[in-house]
Design brief:
The protein has 5 helices and no strands. Keywords: Membrane, Transmembrane, Transmembrane helix. This is Integral membrane protein.
Length: 199
Amino acid sequence: MSFGDPNNPYGQQPQGQPQGQPGYGYPQQAPQGVPQQGYGYPQASPVQGGGYGGYPGGPTEMPGGVKASRVLLYVIAGLQVIGAIFIMLGAAAVSAAKNDATLQDDVQFQQLADYSGGVLWGMAFFALAWGVFAIVLAAKFGKGGNGLRITTIVFGAITAILGIYPFVVVGLVHTVLAVLVVVFVAKSDGEAWFNRPQR
């Protein structure tokens, strides 16, 4: 008995082939009870967690850039204290020169000394206050939120500007450190750290 052309998919099935198995050219059917999947890759379950780089609740350890910003804030605070000490020494020197007997009769120097002494003491106080503010910001990095991040960015920007304008040579170090603080805190890992859910 002839079954026709063996390459013809519409021909009759050979007798030796089991009934449950399709022959050449017949569409493949999944057995009963087995779910069918579409073509391509198998379906994956959706990713769980937030958008913090794969962390479900945000990063659990402070990123390196944020740690570096914290250290730089402490360095800025130390430089502020050293600067305040030098300014206080300058104010004390102006006060001592003001009481010098040879300069008592010089009215212009006395007026300048009065003005300079007050300005120098005010600058020393501002430098100390700015250093304390840097320490407070750095101390809160472990538990601070996005408000602390924004405050630190503003602090860094103001510090960089103050480093450029009044104290060009001495303030260059402040400017560089402040710019680095702003860059490290503003990066995406810094944002993820400060926006993480607080425990």
